[in-house]
Design goal:
Elements: E1 12-14, E2 19-23, E3 26-35, E4 43-48, E5 54-56, H1 64-78, H2 81-84
Antiparallel strand pairs: 1-3, 2-3, 3-4, 4-5
């Protein structure tokens, strides 16, 4: 995962799948985007809303749904900790 590229001269198209995602009391902003007016691959960045820390994927995605699926698969496997650094307490 890496930082998204910065290009101040171009507009971005944001997927309708972008938005706030909550789980285990933690919230992140899921940003799925590509350059506007192109068929470029989709980029995925998840921003921890409490710290502002972004987590970006190095890989790109053919569809916005594939990007969202990659995000939700990681949440299902590891929870929100990869994005927030907060590990929920173990429940016995």
């Amino acid at each position: 995962m890496s930082q998204p590229p910065v290009d101040d001269d171009r507009d971005f198209e944001h997927s309708l799948l972008s938005g706030t995602f909550s789980r285990d009391g933690e919230q992140v902003d899921v940003e799925i985007y590509r350059y506007a007016g192109t068929q470029d691959p989709w980029q995925l960045v998840v921003v921890d809303l409490s710290s502002g820390r972004p987590t970006g994927w190095a890989q790109t995605f053919a569809t916005d749904q594939e990007a969202y699926n990659a995000f939700t698969a990681l949440v299902e496997a590891e929870g929100m900790a990869p994005f927030t650094g907060v590990v929920p307490p173990v429940q016995h």
